[in-house]
Amino acid sequence: MMIVVSGKPLVYSGSQTNGTWENCVQLCHEVDECMLAYNNNGECQWFKYEELTSVQQTEPEDGFTVVFKVNNSTTSTCPSGTNPPTFNNQDAHGTLRYYASFSNMLEVNYTIKYSSGVWTFSSTAKFACPNDYWVYLDRPDIGWCFIPEKAPTSLTYEGAIEQCASMGAILTGAANPDEVKNIMYWTSGFLNSSYIPQSFTLRLDGKRTTDCQSTPRSSDCMSNQGYSFIDSRGATLQYYSYVTDQGARSAPGNDCLVVLMMEGAEPIVDVQSCTSATSVPARAFLCGREGWI
To answer: Which residues form the PAN-3 domain (predicted)?
Structure first.
């Protein structure tokens, strides 16, 4: 919710200027980092949470205008009272959520207090993932942090599970088409590393059940029921493109999902050995963990 009032920035350390005031309210609403904007002689001057400490209240005839971004009202009617957005001097609250780095999401919760003609901001900030090596993506019911990792030697399925556990994570896979695109992008990115060969596999979550090893092409065994998954929130075979299909079992023990990255080709999912006997070395794996914990 955007609240326009008479006021001007009082204590601040920096700002951004984009466009004119006529478009400023909409701009601040759409820019995830924007906490407040100011009509600076007809220009749109806006502030991130770490840049602004306080705002001075002014009179309408002074000609100064600011717009606060605050959380939506819990009622169906527009709030009213003195000294908005701190209506009747009650604290106002806002939340910003944006990628503060290339891959890691930041959530900022801030409080606006009013006293003696001055609005003062205080805030707390939290990253979704442990550090910027992780990639944050939203799932419908949860935020999820991914980290694609390299291995010094060919890694078994169980070995990949153990490596993820050592980072406080689990072996993971794709829960939707967007995640598939990212996984293929990360896998291709390993080709720029001299650490692993130009042809390799990346281990994903997903292992064919014992019952389905003898009938991998039955309808049940080619569905999610035919595999066991560690990542219960991403347990699906649905969105991958396969070398053949999810019923492939070219040799005994070929029961684990991998991304196959062959030199000169596009990455694609296959069902290969759960041991180190994959067609090319299993030198990468994908871990995931819940965000915001």
So the answer is: 2-123
